[in-house]
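pinging the channel bc i need a second pair of eyes. not urgent but kinda urgent?? the chain im working w is below, pasted from the shared doc
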Amino acid sequence: MQGENKNIILILLVLALFTGATIELSEGSTIIGIVLFIMAAGLITRIKLTGENSAFKNSKTYLFAGLFIMAAVTVFNLATKSSIGTLDSMTFLIGASLLAMGTARKDTRQLGEFGLYISVIFTALYLVFYTFFGIFNIDFVHLFNHYFVLMPTVFLLKFTGIPVEIIAIETITLYGITETMTIIIGGPCSGLYSMFLLIGIVAAYSRMESIQLKKSLMILLFAVCVAYISNLVRVFTLYIVAYYYGIATMMVFHTHLGWMLFAGTAGLIMYIMNRKDLLRK
């Protein structure tokens, strides 16, 4: 059971690093994003998988398909001179996972299959909530940002006596000490990226280790709650930074340090829950 708990903690660390990588690649430093992806991949190798329930056998087809996808993403970004975005990074991860699955080493194939589950599930959820819903004018992301991120954090600001005003569905005016700021909740601030990654990670681990459905759902529900609460703490802290130090300082925290706060908060909650033996039930 101790090894299983260690795996769960590693899974949440991988989640934090993947979240940081997607934020850095889309809004921050590409180099930092790539480094975080490499670190996440390295942690995945530390997760002990039996491999007995692998759905894929090694094949050169996977190897060539992976190389093609990785090359296509690279060429496209170079040709269009565009920055690497969330979908680009996840598509590249799909290619890298297929490449690993086409190798002869069993542990590398397991790593590839694990990464494939994560990237495919994230990409599918991203397309549904950010693209498919948009085609049919379903404002799920905007409504989620308003009711589940903006409203709770604004309540906390008012509770602490910080002057703030909601002026649009995803926009507030924050009356800071040094300046008055208009802040928009969007992109990674929704916390949906981390939830998408988490669903993929838990699904991958549960599938490859044949964990009981009930236990998998309990782990998933708990981890999604961790991700949601951590994101609220992250957004609220960014408001506090903006209030005291201004929008420029807040943006530094938002891009480079926000995901670290998320990781730290998630880790703290995991530690508390693990001490209470709730994960061992």
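so The longest strand covers residues 164-168. and The chain has one domain: 2-280. — does that match what u expected or am i reading it wrong
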